[in-house]
Amino acid sequence: MNMKEFSLCVGLSAHTLRYYEKIGLIKNVQRNTSGHRSYTKKEVDWVGFIVRLKETGMALENILQYAELREVGVMTVFERQQLLERHKERLKAHIVLQQNHLEALDRKIDLYKAKKVS
């Protein structure tokens, strides 16, 4: 698929995708005979994982670290696992914090609702 199709498929702008390629998050993109990028399901899956990591709050620096380990191969599985486990713990703590914020907002909203009734 071409850049436009790929961009629509993964939900990222062409500019972002070119940036990810420039910094090494996306590597070895094939090119067609006219020199345009040609993406496969492999890149779709990889960028989907990158997006998931970004949406869960992983820093780009850590995603790059993961990508570098991934590039080295199976001998880095343990390090990749550890990196993801650390991120999972940070994400769980963030979810607890956000849940506490949500509960505080609910209490405030309930307080306002109670004042309307009286």
Which segments are poorly predicted (pLDDT under 50) over 5 or more consecutive residues?
none
Distance between the termini: 62 Å
Helix amount, in percent?
Answer: over 70%
Q: Which fold name fills CATH's third level, the topology? A: Multidrug-efflux Transporter Regulator, Chain: A, Domain 2
- In the CATH scheme, the class would be Mainly Alpha
* Secondary-structure class: mainly alpha
What do these coordinates show?
With 118 residues, the chain is mainly alpha-helical. It has a single domain, classed as Multidrug-efflux Transporter Regulator, Chain: A, Domain 2. Helix content is 74%, strand content 3%. It contains five helices and two strands; from the N terminus they run H-H-E-E-H-H-H. It has a two-stranded antiparallel ribbon. A hairpin with a 5-residue loop joins strand 1 and strand 2. Helix 4 runs antiparallel to helix 5. It is elongated and about 70 Å long.
Give a short overview.
Residues 1-69 form the HTH merR-type domain. The chain is mainly alpha-helical.
Task: Name the features.
118 residues; mainly alpha; Multidrug-efflux Transporter Regulator, Chain: A, Domain 2; two-stranded antiparallel sheet; 5 helices; elongated; MerR-type_HTH_dom; MerR_fam; MerR family transcriptional regulator; DNA-binding; DNA-bd_dom_put_sf
How do the strands and helices of this protein lay out in sequence?
Blueprint: H1 3-10, H2 14-23, E1 30-31, E2 37-38, H3 41-55, H4 60-72, H5 77-117
Antiparallel strand pairs: 1-2
Helix pairs in contact: 4-5
